[in-house]
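Researcher: First entry.
Model:
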Amino acid sequence: MRSIVLASWCFCLFAAVSSQNVGTQAAEEPLNMPISVCSGPGNCQTEADGVVLDANWRWTHTTTGYTNCYTGNLWDNSLCPDPDTCTTNCAIDGVPLSDWTGTYGGSTSGNALSLKFVTQGPYSKNIGSRTYLLDSSKQRYRMFQLLNREFTYDVDVSSLDCGLNGALYFVSMDADGGAAKYPTNKGGAKYGTGYCDAQCPHDIKWINGKANSKDWVPSPEDANSGKGHYGNCCAELDIWEANKQSQAFTTHPCTTNDQTQCEGTVCGDNDSGDRYNGMCDKDGCDFASYRLNDRTFYGPGSSFQVDTTRPFTVVSQFLTTDGTDNGDFKEFRRFYVQEGRRIENSKVNFPGVAPYDSLTDEMCSATKALFGDIDDHKNKGGLKKMGEAMKKGMVLVMSIWDDHDVNMLWLDSNYPPNGDPNQPGIARGPCPTTSGEPSEVEVTQANAVIKFSNIKFGPIGSTA
């Protein structure tokens, strides 16, 4: 997905927090979001799915009252002196429909989901959000088996500028959020629990049904976030990370195909120098048009092939070695449709490198060698390993976030910022290296909205 993953999360309603027990102070009401499941061209059926808010954004309080267990970026030491006591004392509450718009900035209309970046709620300011697609039961995450399939949606990134990321991606979460595995997880998928990704994030407040309060360190950059002792790892398939200036799609295999709590070296933490010693490929293999030296493919205005001032359709295809659901994952193909015009994906545009127009193991190795990057993608099993996770089923995530670590420069500017932009791989977008500072972005782009709509899923050639 991304080189560094840190969203600016605000826990609203009395400085809201997250837990695994279920409170009774607010009703849980997921948003309705129908999708189309296709069996062939022109043969699609509508299924009444839903959208649930991630547990990290929710109000968590004592099980018997309204007292917060976590305020700002700190656990309450009296309620949470240790993870077991915290788990017993705290309950996560629901998100009623009125709070989706008024507190968290989320809404649906027909088959479209809109996520607003900053929302001033009745008690505090919410920044960013992360949501998951539920199946029609509204009790479990929809599981997508993506091999030998294509996934299509419409997207509008026109209000997202430098420093923002409107993301749509898949991770190897459990369909029930881990509720069956971990008895202390009373919320399950219905309450948005169980998140994991290839960055093995430590800022998840509840992992495997217990509070991640051990050794919790508040973030010096983010007043609403911190890091606990444990991380939560799993494979990640980034279909879409983008603003109107730049975009990327990325595969992140892990040595394990299931959600796995980590501690120590296997987390691959940057702070300990273990980025490439962990269980997941944190860099991933990315196909990013600007980084691959096509500067006219994607951007705001009619001079670009994909004009980001207007909505467009994104079609992703996951091809296998033998053209069946049981084959190994061999190729991630992409094309776009805008106002009835099909737009083929951009190509790698560096002398001495084949003009790849899709993500394959060969493309990954060639571009990483050109960029001088460690090929951790290959070390972690490449597309074959990524395909094993896809075969088991993955959960769809849709989010909007800013970056308190490196200001999203890895997506839309030069990264590292002191690198030579003439060196292949350094320039990732047209944004200045001074852009993306959250304190600025959260003011100047407060009204930014990412909109995903018209999701379709089915065999190759059935959705576009």
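Researcher: Second entry.
Model:
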Amino acid sequence: MAKLQNTASGNPIADNQNSVTAGVRGPVLLQDYQLLEKLAFQNRERIPERTVHANGSGAYGELEITEDISKYTKASLFQKGEKTKLFLRFSTVAGEAGAADAERDVRGFAIKFYTKEGNWDLVGNNTPTFFIRDGIKFPDFIHTQKRDPRTHLRCNNAAWDFWTLNPETLHQVTILMSDRGIPASYRHMHGFGSHTYSLINANGERFWVKFHFKTKQGIKNLTNEEAAKVIAKDRESNQRDLYNSIDKGDFPKWDFKIQIMTEEQANNCKFNPFDLTKTWPHADYPLIPVGVMTLNKNPENYFNEVEQAAFSPSNIVPGISWSPDRMLQARIFSYPDAQRYRIGVHYQQLKVNQPIVEVNNYYVGGFMNNGSYKQEPKAYYEPNSNGGPVGDSKYLEPDLAIGDVAARWDHRVDEDYYSNPRALYVILPEDEKKRMYKNIAESMEGVCEKIIERALGHFEKIDPSYAAGVKAAIAECKAKCSCGC
């Protein structure tokens, strides 16, 4: 027997097929509260989409720690044998909600760990680096990836203008234009915390850390031509692949590994270890196995669990902390601020965002406060004499030495823009290099000659063959073009 249908307030519904009208042909009456409620809810079915990472997919899983790394961290979820439930959201960076999955773009790799000490969010990508190293440039960068406000079209000229005027982007651009720029599926790509974070052990010692998730399914990518065929048939190819694989019990897995750098090593490091545009050489800072991450459960309601999932690097737990990474510092503010605007001030009370621990605080009122926070009636301020929650100094982090002169320090004081992309370029197979030249040439359609020449100048400094290959591919594209450009 079917369940009784109700209004949002629980009132039984007698007829959900017909409005209340004054006779068979008469007008609708304002008293039809079921009609009004139904239309009002439809008007509010959407929330503002994410400014970036709008198009995404998600799944639940767990992280199992198989190795002992307690000498680096006291975090409960990182102790050997520990299993922690998690929610992972994959996404594309530039595309709007509804954009095709198989587009050339960086993929988001955001994980919410429901630990015994509160939620820890690791907000990363499928690349170990990013385009910029200072958060003050993030809005400018994203504007180049979105639509021209005049034409409302994506603009290759803006993207390449920004990239060539900000050469710290070259490492990420090279990754994006390589085969890994279009993963065949979310299951067949690596994930990275990307930023430098810190681990703190039981002795109060701090270690700088990079987080890596290496796919156990193997790397698979698409060429531009293969991606075009996929998009023509299925714009939700990655979403479908992820959902179907989990649904049939083929649970995707990633090996979880870390790189460690001591504070002394960081002080003597030849490059800035907190620069998001650079990687740490594995020869100097080898990957350390930690555990395995598995995705094993699909969401039951996409809107509730994927669209309303809210991640922020501001969510940390004892034993894990941040670093002086400028981009990370900016995201600590911008991410929770975006969620408060997009979903509401109490977005943490939504089920997908709720921690598994009891929450006690003094946050009162506001939209969406469902009362899941524990508050004593006589202790709604602090300090108080009524037994309200208090802080505990045992959770203080060890001191962090910082610079003593506050200024707008030039983040381009390190002008080594070319060694990292060069190190990547030289290990690419020759056939992948040829595809990368072609990808770059195709992405430069509509880009003015001045910007193309600027780009070639940068490629020349990475490696002369890089510039020569792109230049030849551009000439070939122009020869085939029928538009007369």
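Model: Note on the second entry: Strands lie at 56-65, 83-92, 107-115, 118-125, 191-192, 197-200, 206-215, 253-262, 288-297, 320-321.
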